[in-house]
Give the backbone structure.
Amino acid sequence: MMRAALASTGSDLRFQRPSFIATPPVNDGARPITQDDEAVRPFLKWVGGKRAILPALSAHAPRAFRRYHEPFVGGGALFFHLSRLGSLPHGAALSDNNERLVRAYKGVRDRVEDVIRHVGSYPHDKTFYLEMRDRPVDSFSDAEVAAWLIYVNRTEYNGLYHVNQQNRFNVPFGDYENPRICDPENLRACSRALSRADIRCEPFDVVAERAERGDFVYFDPPYVPLSSTSSFTSYTASGFGLSHQQKLVAVARSLKARGVHVLLSNSSAPLVRELYKDGFSTHEVRVARSVNSRGDGRGKIVELLMK
C-alpha cells in the first residue's frame, strides 16, 4: 500500500463520560441497524484505504472507548465499519488537511440527494473527465465538490488523488470499461453514518485539543516510503515530510500519556520502526499492494500498527 507518503490542551482528565463496548456490536437505540447499514462502505477508492485490514484494525482497537477521532480520514474505512456496527453512540470527529476531501464528506453528509443528482448525470467519457479535472472546483458548493471528487475518483487512473504545487488535480484518465460511478444506496448509507460526525479541515495535531481520556484516536497518516522511488508526496500541495512524521509521534505519545486510546498505521520502513520504538507496541500486518504501475509489482507487503 502506498498511502500519500512523505508528501495530508485536553479537558479536565478527572471527568470521564461512560464508556461503551466497541465490540461486539451495539446500537445507540436511536434506530435499528438495517440492511442498508450492513452495506455501508467508503464512497471513495482512497489510496491507502483500510478495508483490507479491518480485521487487524478491529483486533488492535480498544475494546471500550468513548468518542472516535480520525485526523487523516481518507476513505474512512474504519469509521464506516464502526458506524455499521453501531459502535459510535458518542459520535465521531473526522478531519483531514485535504480541503476538497473534507468538503466532499460534508456534501455527502448534508446534501446527499444533490450529490447523487450531479454525479448520476456524469458520463464515463475521457473528454468529459479531462474537462471535469480542470474545473475550478474550489468555487463549487460542497455537494458539487463531492460529486466532482466521486466522479474523478471512479474514473481516474488507479484511484489516486494527486495535485501539483498549484493544487491542480493532475491524474490521467483511467482504463476502466464500465466503472460504477454513482451508487445511490451506498451514498445514502454513508450520509446517515456521517450525520453524527463532526467534519473539519485542519492539521492532524489539533486532535490533541479535543480528545479526552477514554476517547479513541486512529491515525492513518501519509506513509513513509519503503524506497527512494516510492515516495508519493502530492496528496496535498504542502506535502507531509519527516518533521510531520516526528510531530505525529509526539502527539500520539502525549495522547497516550493522557489516557487516550491511540492506534496508528504506517509502512514498515526502518524509519517508522525507529520513530515508534519507545513507548509503543508495534504489530505487523500483511496487506495486498494495490498501487503499482506494473501488475507484477503488486502483492503482499508488511505494514505496521502501533499503539
The beta strands are 20-21, 64-65, 68-70, 92-96, 197-201, 216-219, 261-267, 282-288, 300-306. Residues 1-37, 230-237, 292-297 have pLDDT under 50 and may be disordered.
